[in-house]
Design goal:
single chain; 293 residues; alpha/beta; six-stranded mixed beta sheet; two-stranded antiparallel sheet; 43% helix
Length: 293
């Protein structure tokens, strides 16, 4: 049994994200994620105007009359959220941790998929694959995904995006929409992004806390890396140090965008100090405009 406060938190996330899906995302999710392709529907007699390329020559030969194959668009999607569960995801300085934002994002995507009759699943990873929930439909399944992202206790502390994407390639046998949710602090995943983007519709969702971009003015501060345990001292009283820190954060963000652009991967940035749905809505609109061109 889950603690009452945790159940209330899951319920709050469900209510808030359902309202967002119904009020703001209606139609947008469906418009930017296309089905897996065309599925065979039927064979019928040739009619003037039909494409000659669609003639089924086997049936035509057996019947002595021309027949054509008919196809329908296969709308049902497979959606997977690959969520970073490493120790750095427990970080947050604005009242919300990054893993809480990831749970809200999971809810938003899961309920959007459910509204569109799509299947959705979750993969949680650290420096290894920790937990995988195969794709399914339904409200109970969506609530389980939220719970797992919010409550799962991982064994590892580090981050391996290549391990997560390699696992997905092994367990997914059809093209899927994959939301890769992480802070992307690291540099070992470029090749994995390129490879996965060739087989899936990959969207990189970058979680950011404002203290990872700017330091407040202060004094000497001793910090510990959540993933490695390394300790180091920051001179937050130095304007030059704070400026260098901000420049390094901007450089990381620019390199991340360049890497994803080269790999053909769409990106979304979600901050712990801002409404989590707004960046996703802007992404849907931006992508819809691009598809209409």
């Amino acid at each position: 049994m889950l603690p009452p406060e945790l159940l209330r938190q899951i319920r709050r996330i469900e209510v808030r994200t359902r309202r967002t899906v119904n009020d703001l995302l209606a139609g947008q999710y469906e418009s930017v994620f296309r089905g897996a392709g065309l599925a065979f529907d039927e064979v019928r007699e040739y009619q003037p105007g039909d494409e000659v390329r669609t003639i089924d020559w086997n049936v035509t030969a057996r019947t002595g009359h021309p027949y054509v194959k008919r196809y329908r668009e296969e709308r049902e999607q497979t959606v997977i959220l690959a969520v970073d569960a490493s120790a750095s995801q427990a970080f947050g300085t604005t009242g919300r941790r990054k893993n809480e934002v990831a749970a809200e994002l999971t809810a938003l995507v899961a309920f959007s998929a459910m509204k569109n009759n799509d299947k959705v699943g979750v993969l949680l990873f650290t420096d290894r694959v920790e937990h995988f929930v195969p794709v399914a439909k339904g409200t109970a399944h969506a609530l389980r995904l939220i719970r797992d992202v919010l409550c799962f206790t991982p064994r590892g502390r580090g981050t391996s995006i290549p391990a997560a994407l390699a696992y997905l390639r092994r367990v997914t046998h059809r093209r899927a929409v994959v939301f890769l949710v992480s802070d992307f602090i690291g540099s070992d995943y470029a090749r994995s992004l390129r490879t996965s983007a060739r087989g899936h519709d990959l969207v990189a969702v970058r979680l950011v806390d404002p203290r990872e971009q700017r330091l407040p003015r202060g004094t000497l501060v001793e910090l510990e890396d959540a993933e490695t345990g390394d300790r180091f001292t920051m001179d937050t009283g130095s304007a030059a140090y704070r400026a260098a820190y901000a420049r390094a954060a901007e450089t990381r963000a620019e390199q991340f965008e360049q890497l994803c652009r080269a790999a053909g991967v769409d990106t979304v940035e979600i901050r712990t100090d801002a409404p989590f749905a707004d960046p996703l809505i802007r992404f849907f609109r931006r992508r819809a405009r691009r598809l209409r061109r």
